Amino acid sequence: MSDVNIAGYGDNLTVNGICIGDLSPAEHEAIEKEKGGRNYRPLENVVVSHVQDSSTLVCRKPDPQDITAYIEEELVDGLCCYSAVNQGQLNQTIVDAVVHHLTKEKIPTVPRSIRHKYMSAFLLAATSITGMDRVVPKVAGVEAPELMFKLSRRWGYRIKGIPKNEAIIVAAKGNFHGRSMTAISMSDDPDAREDFGPYVPGIELVPFNDINALLDLFEKKGDRIAAYLVEPIQGEAGVIVPDDDYWKQVSALCKKYNVLLAMDEVQTGFARTGANFAHQLFGVKPDLMGCGKAAGGGILPVSFVAGRDDVIGLLTPGSEGSTFGGYPLASVVSTYAIKVMVDGSLSEKAHTRGTQLMTHFSNMKLEFPDKIKEVRGMGLLTAFEMHDNENLNGHNVSLKLLDRGVYAKETHHSTVRIAPALTINADQIDYIAEAIRDVVKNL
Ligand SMILES: Cc1ncc(COP(=O)(O)O)c(C=O)c1O
Question: Is the CB of 142 under 6 A from ligand 1?
């Protein structure tokens, strides 16, 4: 049996005699590479230490005079943890709720087999903000599409009358719904799928934003299709915004063929795109909706599925559950994540700051047409795509932005997504845009 010795807090946190505050960026990288899963490719030579304000990270970089040591620098956060921190880092209202909960209320972690008083608050807030009949709390983002997948199949068999084990879930090409077996079975990204088969059966893919392809599939197999499970705007694919009328047409088709519209709003929800939930921008209402990321206010992993009574109502004890889904602290945090979104008018902020950023991007495209192929965005979910050219490399851009005090990350070889906290101020947007312009100019 081996032993482990752990002591201290913050920079003094020490494990087996190694104090984390003493480690250089290279030493952190070496430990991750040796002991971690190697399933990420973080930016080199930078380690986040703490936050300065709602959109500023304090990072450690190698000391140019002595690479065994580090210096600290501020970075404007252009990604906000892939939209998990829409409310801004350490949002004070949410932090106050957490501190109050843990120190004054003192409610322990309890399972769903005994009621706790905060679940009611969460359910009231979440059904109210989503305009849905029922809500089921979960933990990780991927659990939301996972549950929508299960619910759609059960609804397909029990209500639509699809023959047993023949239900089809339709997904869109280029989708991203997470990393579970179901999510990668829906994916067409070879990196996500390779050597993880056999995949979950009963999935058909259609091109995103192609109403005729969907119609064609519905005509051929509509009697066995339970749901179209899809992101309203594809985030990981590089912020792909569909045509204005796409969702209205999809919604009408789904009604005609009795197919559920299940929207994955894990990335687009919680005010990111300029509405509380992106589907509202397109004038449609899904039958099921999955949220995650900012549903936990940037503090805790919280996700949930909201939806129609006749679909979520099909769940029975034993058919679904999660130890930490909706436990007391998560219920409080998510209730406050909703409160901050509403009281802080975050959707309006996303719209205003998003318009400001997109104006910069459009100007950049005009200035460098040989480098910038397209700029896309909705609210503060934005991206610029460069032409397909070896020099115009998104990872390279991310590294160069780091030198100019901005944290951003490519989504694909030539696309960089910018999605800062919705609390970001106008000067910080200008700062990010100017840094990007400078980097692109010098590519
Ligand atoms: C649309 C969408 N669904 C699901 C997920 C998975 O969320 P998580 O990584 O929290 O499991 C993501 C993550 O980026 C996402 O963008």
Answer: yes
Do residues 392 and 371 make contact, with C-beta atoms less than 8 angstroms apart? yes
What superfamily in CATH does domain 346-441 come from?
Aspartate Aminotransferase, domain 1 (3.90.1150.10)
92-343 CATH, one of 1.25.40.10, 3.30.565.10, 3.40.640.10, 2.30.110.10: 3.40.640.10
CA–CA dist 360, 355 (Å, integer): 9
- List the strands of the sheet with 47-53, edge to edge: 47-53, 56-63, 66-77, 406-407
Q: Are strands 415-418 and 381-386 parallel, antiparallel or unpaired?
A: antiparallel
| Cβ 205 vs Cβ 250: under 8 Å | no
Closest CA to 294 of 240, 242, 350: 350
Q: Please answer whether residues 224 and 258 qualify as being in contact, where contact means their C-beta atoms are separated by less than 8 angstroms.
A: no
Beta carbons of 240 and 206 less than 8 angstroms apart: no
- Per-residue pLDDT tens digits for 310-367: 999 999 999 999 999 999 999 999 999 999 999 999 999 999 999 999 999 999 999 9
Segment 142-170, tens digit of pLDDT = 999 999 999 999 999 999 999 999 999 99
End-to-end CA distance of the chain: 54
- Please choose, from the candidates 335, 389, 360, 384, the residue with its C-alpha nearest in 3D space to the C-alpha of residue 118: 335
State the burial class of residue 190 (Cβ atoms within 10 Å of its Cβ: 0-12, 13-18, 19+): exposed
Q: Would strands 66-77 and 56-63 be described as parallel, antiparallel, or unpaired?
A: antiparallel
* Cβ 177 under 6 angstroms from ligand 1: yes
Ligand 1 close to Cβ of residue 140 (< 6 A) = yes
User: Pocket of ligand 1, candidates 143, 233, 265, 293: which has the most ligand atoms within 8 Å of its Cβ, to mutate?
Assistant: 293
pTM of the model: 0.97
